[in-house]
Amino acid sequence: MSSTSESYVHEARGPVHSGEGNQYIYIQAAEARLRKLASRRPRSIMEEDREHLAGRFVPPPGLRRARDRLRTSHTVLIDGVPGSGRRTAALMLLHELSALPTARGTLHELPNTSDDTTAAPLDPGDVNEGSLLLLDLSKIDAAQYVAAQGAFSDFRERLLHHGAHFAVVLPHHLGHLLRDELKRFKAEIRQPWAQRLLAAHLRHDGIMPSATELGGTELIAYLTQAPMSEVAGLADRIRCCRDMSPPDRGFPHWLAESLENQHNQSTRVAADIAASRSGRQRALLLSLAMFHGVTPGIVLQARDALLRILSHPPDDTPRLDRADLHAELSAIGAETRGDGRVRFGVPGYERAVRNHFWTYLPDIRTSLRTWFRDCLADPGLGPADRKEAVERFAEQSLRAGRPEDLTWLAEAWTSKKAPAGLLADAAQALALGLDDEQYGRHFRQQIYDWSTSAEPGRGLRQVLIVVCSQTMARSHPDQALVRLHHLARRSPGPVGTDARRALRHLVDGDHRLYRRFLDRLGTGIGQGSWQVDRALFLELADPTRLIGLRAVRDALRTCWAGVLRAPAEDWATDLDRWLTASEDVRHRDLILRVLAGACSADVLTSGRLYRVALRWQRAGRGPEHADVLALLLRELNANQGIEPYGHTDQAH
User: Which of 34, 44, 204, 232 has the least CB density, counted as fewest CB within 10 Å?
Assistant: First the structure.
């Protein structure tokens, strides 16, 4: 491993990006990895994930008042200290409403990034009949918070008109900026009892510990300082231990193993590092801490790469006069176990080592980023080892307030110089950033910037499609839609096809997103900026889906008006499909009004449409085709002010 880009490529084994070639085996690996992470996404708003969360939810103190606020005034502003579960509480209150027999609308989260719009921070157009809306303002700045409050009055008026409900997570650090007239909607929650939360999670996984087992000193000490997200993580680790343990092991063993890595070894690590005799030993400490549980050879290569990147002088002592790797590992308290992999002997030691280096050596963080980039190209690292290493690096980068390190790695691992097998690691790095409570917004904005730029290469675009469809869509589907649309517009060839396929999957199961996408396509087609928007419309629009809604017919009419300006060969086949759909008398009138309305009073456009429809009618059989054509002609004539023959005489 080396810090130079040349050896970064030359040492890679297997395919690398060259701008062409099939990389889809690696994209499929990225999708699989993100799907495995899905169960650990508490920020998801998908119904299946809400159901999963609801079964493990413990109502926090203050929730009853928040529920009353939401149901009586259709609005609640939820406050509380970070880590108290504010977002989860807001989501669960809306989820309760969605489960009522009277529920009419869908539950979705409003965007909090600047996407394609200069509209007000709260857009009344986002409110539909019975909508259940979540807005997370917990990480916005003061200017954005003031602007959002300024738009609240008009937004709330539309809420009440449409019977919608609105739950907002307030920025606790900006509590002094909340307007007096909005304080009546505020409800404050406190963190629920951690033992009850852990028990609820375990109960739904079929684990029933006794009160004594949940009252151990070590567990209580951990739960006292752990935020809610870590309590859920502990329950997940206990479940995994149960699934992997022999049948004779019980809850005490599962718990002890799950708490192993949570031990605070920071004081011990600080003393050990201070006592280290050389930089080589410290580099070995960090290399094993980052790649904990790999083979000795991988640790050695990582150590040597770190020394090179930090320009550490080489050891000129003859090799056989130096200690071997076994002795060096023993000197730092590590051992090679029966599976041939190296681990520290003290539980939690490896995390404390990572914490120490990122906390107390901030001047080498950029170098550590470069080192980690190169280390993951080592062909000796398997997918599972790389996955765990990416999680460790992401944890430190986000803890140190350096989210840009993860976006930098994503760009590096998807470049033409990088081994193609790193696509899954790039996707995971971005997914972990998106799921972070503090920096999720930063990553959504960065992905938007990438998706609207012509600069990202093929590899990064492929990764963005996976991340938007597998991760962002679960928590922020509207924003995933926007980004996938931009990627579909700007990505030629197979990557563009993948983006369109992801868009179809996103809107197929969600009427609200389908309507939103039709509106976006109508705007794009009307502006004429993107020819691909016409193709997207013809590919994704369904002639009968929601055709009974006036807003949908208006959007379809707008899109068809732009499509019909193109040569007939571009849309004739799709028109045949729409005309065939209109053979069903339940939809005939509305479909044909959309098509005729798209021509407006334009004689030339009407003529082109009618000639294509005439060919369709002549190619078909049965009276339905003739009936469809006759009604289409009447609608076209009506738009041009031409009355049916004999209409006046019949009127008299």
Answer: 204
Residue 152: exposure state from Cβ atoms within 10 A (0-12, 13-18, ≥19)? buried
The C-alpha atoms of residue 373 and residue 245 are separated, in whole angstroms, by 34
Percent of the chain with pLDDT over 70: 92
- Residue spans of beta strands (DSSP E) within 217-355: 334-336, 342-344
The residues spanned by each domain of the chain are 1-36+193-475, 59-188, 564-652
pLDDT at 422 over 80: yes
Among 525, 588, 590, residue whose Cα is nearest residue 560: 525
CB 104 within 8 A of CB 132: no
Which tokens sit at 358? Answer: 């990122």
Per residue in 113-141, pLDDT tens? Answer: 767 664 556 888 788 889 999 999 998 88
Beta strands 334-336 and 132-136 are unpaired
CB 78 within 8 A of CB 187: yes
Rounded to whole angstroms, how far apart are CA atoms 468 and 456? 15
Distances (CA, A) of 9 to 20, 291, 385, 390: 17, 21, 21, 20
Mean pLDDT over each residue of the chain, to the nearest integer: 89
CA dist., res. 358 & res. 91, Å (int): 34
The arrangement of strands across the sheet holding 75-79 comes to: 107-109, 132-136, 165-169, 75-79, 186-188
Please state the rounded mean pLDDT for residues 612-636.
Answer: 91
**What is the crossing angle of helices 24-37 and 423-434, to 10°?**
30
Q: What is the mean pLDDT of residues 412-437?
A: 94
Q: What is the pLDDT of residues 550-585, one digit of tens each?
A: 999 999 999 999 999 999 999 999 999 999 999 999
**CA-to-CA distance for 556 and 308, rounded, in angstroms?**
61
Nearest to 388 by CA among 418, 345, 343: 343
Options 3.40.50, 1.20.5, 2.30.30, 2.40.50; CATH for 59-188 is: 3.40.50
Summarize pLDDT for 73-127 with one digit per residue, the tens.
999 999 999 888 899 999 999 999 998 888 888 898 888 776 766 455 688 878 8
Q: At what angle do helices 458-467 and 477-490 cross, to 10 degrees?
A: 160
Supply the pTM of this predicted model.
0.85
